[in-house]
Write the structure tokens for this entry.
Amino acid sequence: MSDTQTTESIQKRAIQPSRSTRLLAIGMILLALVQVGAAVRALTLPPDLATQISLLPALEFLVAGMWAGVFAFQAWLLMRSADKRRARRRTVVMLGAFVVYTVARLAVFAQADYDRNRLPFLLLLTVIVLFIFTVYYGVTHDAQSQD
């Protein structure tokens, strides 16, 4: 086996995503599909039901479309990026942003008693998840800066 064949096989293996990266990309694709479904639901909402919802269907369509695009792009980036560690880190940060957006949207637009009663639990869960993300990022960032 020549040196060029060896370097080519090493480069191919370096670009191949790990199992966890592939699972994360599949999760991103599923979230993109869920957001596409939310956008379609916002477009096909009956007019009498649209008047009872506090979030405008057009705004819901735009935001769901934006998140679908972000998730799809992130899945593509996870599979194609040469720097898999950075792509995974960005994915985790983006998921944190999506969680914050979802809880903030619920806090602003919740009208039903059920939604209002689960809001403190969701806020606490969001704080815990963001704390874990922050600690994890700090530990990995410190470990990388020492290398």
